[in-house]
Amino acid sequence: MMKSSFFTLISKEFLAEWRQRYALNGMLLYIISTIFVCYLSFNIKNTDLQSVTWNALFWIIILFTSINSIAKSFIQENEGRLLYYYSLASPQHIILSKIVYYGTIMTILSFAGYFFYSFVMGNPIQDLTMFALVVLLASFGLSSALTMLSGIASKAPNSTSLIAILSFPVLLPLLLVIIKASKNAMDGINRSLYIDDILLLVAINAIIVAVSYMLFPYLWRS
């Protein structure tokens, strides 16, 4: 029954998203329009974009996309629905199901953004496999952190402003590791030289999920 409730919650999230496809379509439109504005601003036809700028700009776009798409995970839930969830499932399953769901959505958005970004801004990546691994880990890391922060912010007034304040100190260490690892993959550096950054990224993701799993029940009871 425990496993059943976990998968039921995940399927519920996907069904709800499918019924409101305009939300996902809106996020795709947001990331595509942002990339196109960057393309016009940098005038790529007349300027060769340096790899450092290419990498930083890409992750800025992904960061704001993740905040706009995940920040609403708990904030949009009304109190009656949360009370109904409280009576049906464990808080651990609720937080894990949302992390898995938003991690999947963020992975789709990140790779869709990457393909369009590469199409209009060029593709200087030399080690595509490692860069794709960084994008995957970054998507789940950002979604895990923002999902937990959304749960915290939903318990306070002005939750939208609060999550923006809370997200900066939490996401900054994660972003520094992501940018460093992705830059090494872009330059085609020997993988053994930055495998520690990849392992650190995996460890940060695991810590965020573990902390969410342990602390969310206390937040849920309030």
3D structure, described in words:
The mean pLDDT is 81. The chain is globular. By secondary structure, it is mainly α. The two termini are 25 Å apart. The chain contains 9 helices and no strands.
Short description:
The chain is an all-alpha fold and 222 residues long. The protein is 84% helix and 0% strand.
What attributes does this structure have?
222 residues; mainly alpha; 0% strand; globular
Sequence-ordered SSE layout with sheet pairings:
Blueprint (H helix, E strand, L loop, with lengths): L1 H18 L1 H22 L8 H20 L1 H4 L3 H10 L2 H31 L6 H26 L5 H29 L7 H27 L1
Number of strands: 0
Number of helices: 9
Q: What low-confidence regions span 5 or more consecutive residues with pLDDT below 50?
A: none
What spatial form do the alpha-carbon principal axes imply? Answer: globular
Order of helices and strands: HHHHHHHHH
| Computed Rg | 18 Å
Largest sheet: none
Determine the structural class based on helices, strands and strand pairing.
mainly alpha
Give the % helix: over 70%
